[in-house]
Amino acid sequence: MTVTAPMARKKGLFIRTYGCQMNVYDSERMADVLRPLGYAPAASPDDAEMVIVNTCHIREKASEKVFSELGRLRDLKAQKRRDGQDLVIAVAGCVAQAEGAEIMRRQPAVDIVVGPQAYHRLPEMVARAARAAANRQGTSKGAGVLDTEFPVEPKFDYLPAPSTVKGGAAFLSVQEGCDRFCTFCVVPYTRGAEYSRPAQAILAEARGLVAAGACEITLLGQNVNAWHGAAPDGTTWSLAQLIRALAEIEGLSRIRYTTSHPRDMDDSLIAAHGAVPKLMPYLHLPVQSGSDRVLEAMNRRHGRDLYLRLVERLRAARPDMALSTDLIVGFPGETDADFEDTLRLVREVGFAAAFSFKYSARPGTPAAMMARQIPDDVRDARLQALQALLGEQQRAFNAAAVGRTMPVLFQEHGRKPGQLLGKSPWLQSVHAEGNARLIGSIVDVHIRATHSVSLSGEIVTVEPVEAAA
User: Fold this and answer.
1) H or E stretch including 201?
2) Sign of the torsion angle spanned by Cα atoms 237, 298, 191, 48
3) Cα–Cα distance list, 417 to 120, 204, 459 (Å)
C-alpha cells in the first residue's frame, strides 16, 4: 500500500547512513519516497522533524553503535518535545532487519523500524506512527511501528523515479539479496534471497539518471554479477548484456558495478571489460582469504587458484585493470600458515585498494558457533601486518599515476578554497584547482603528486571531455 499526501510545509529529514553503497542508494530512495509528505533534506538532526538511522550489520559492534546513536537522538527528541516540537526517529537497514524487536524494546523513543525490503512502505508507516503518537500524547515513548517482513511485491515497483544526481555520479540498484550463504555473513538473513530487477526498469532508471545529470552510474548488488534479469526481448540477460545495453545510452560515459563474487565472474563479463570502453578498468572482487582451507570453512565456493586465474584473465582482457578486494583475518581456525597464504596471494595479485577486517562473530551465522575462535591479540597482529602490505601496494599504485594525464569526474568541492575533488577511472580520489562549474563533468587532469590516499594535479582541458578512459 502506498500512501501519499498533499504537499505541506517543508519538514526537515536527516538520514545518517552507515555501511555500503547499497545503503547510500537506499537512503536516497527513502528521501525520494518521503518527499511527497513534505520532507526535505536537513543539515543536521537538530534541524529535522524526522531522523532515519540507516544501519549496517557488517562492521564489528554494529548494534552497539546504533544504540549509542539512538541514545543521543532520544535526548534530542526529549529536548524538542520540551520546546513544543516533534521528532520522528526511524531505524532502517540490516541491523533493523536483524534486531528490530530488540531495538523497540531497548529504545522506546524509536517510532519506526523498517527493514531493507520494506522502505517503500515508509509513508504508510509515518502515517501509522503519527496516529499512534497522537493517541499517546504526554508519554515519552515512541509509537513503535515495526516492518521487517520480506514483502511479496518487489519494492522497486513502488518507488518513485530518482529525482536528483549529485556531482555527476549515481548509484543504481539492480540486484539484492544473496544465495551464497558465506558462513560469516548476515546478508542472506537481512536482505533475503537473490532478486534481479528487470532490465527494462534498470534501463529506464539509468536514462532518468543521465537526464538528471549523471555521467557515471555504478550498478549495485549484494552479489551484483549474479544479476540475470528479464530482458525487453523476452529472454534473460546476463550482467554483461545489461552493461552493453547501458553503454548505448547517450550521455553516459562511465559504468561501474559492485560487489562481485568470484564464482559469478563469467566469460561474458570478463570479455565486456575488454570490449566496452565505458566500463571502467576498476573491479572490486572480494577474495576474503588466501587459504583454501579457510575459504572452504567460509563456504566461499572458490579457491585461491580460481581467483588468481580470474585476475589473470581480467588483466588479459583489460591490461590497465586495477583490482580491490575484501579480506578477513582471524577467521575461526585460521593458522599462521593460513595467514601466510593470504599474504602470499596479496603479493601475487597486487591490489590497488582493499578493505581488511578482523573477523568478528555475527549472531546467527554458522561461523559464530565454530570452534577455535582466534584470540583478539592474534587477530590484531595479523590485521596490522596485512594492512601494512596493502598500504604499500596502494601507495605504489598511486605513485605510478604521477606524470600521467587522466580523465577525472569532478564530484564536489575539495577542502581548500577553489579546490575540486573527483575520481579517476581507477576510483582514485583526485584533487585539482578549478572552477566550480566543472563539478559533474569529466575533465583531463595531469597528475603532479601522490598523497596518503589521493592524487593531486592540474586541469589541462578547460572544456569537459566527452568520454572517460
Assistant:
1) helix 199-211
2) negative
3) 40, 38, 16
Bridge partner list, 420: 413, 432
- The amino acid that residue 269 corresponds to is L
What domains does the chain contain, in order, with CATH numbers? 11-147 (3.40.50.12160), 155-399 (3.80.30.20), 405-459 (2.40.50.140)
C-alpha cell read off for 340: 601466510
Residue from 202, 320, 326 nearest 261 by CA? 326
- Separation CA 14–CA 313 (nearest Å): 44
Cell representation of residue 37: 509528505
Interatomic CA distance for residues 194 and 68, integer angstroms? 32
Rounded Cα distance, 122 and 16, in Å = 16
Tell me 184's DSSP state.
T
With H, G, I as helix, E, B as strand and everything else as coil, classify residue 39: strand
Q: Of 128, 197, 196, 202, which Cα lies nearest the Cα of 162?
A: 202
Q: pLDDT per residue over 178-211, tens digit each? A: 999 999 998 888 888 899 999 999 999 999 999 9
- Please, are residues 281 and 334 in contact by the beta-carbon 8 Å criterion? no
User: Using H for helix, E for strand and C for coil, what is the string for 63-98?
Assistant: HHHHHHHHHHHHHHHHHHHHCCCCCEEEEEEHHHHH
Tell me the pTM. Answer: 0.87
Q: Cα–Cα distance between 70 and 93 in angstroms, integer?
A: 14
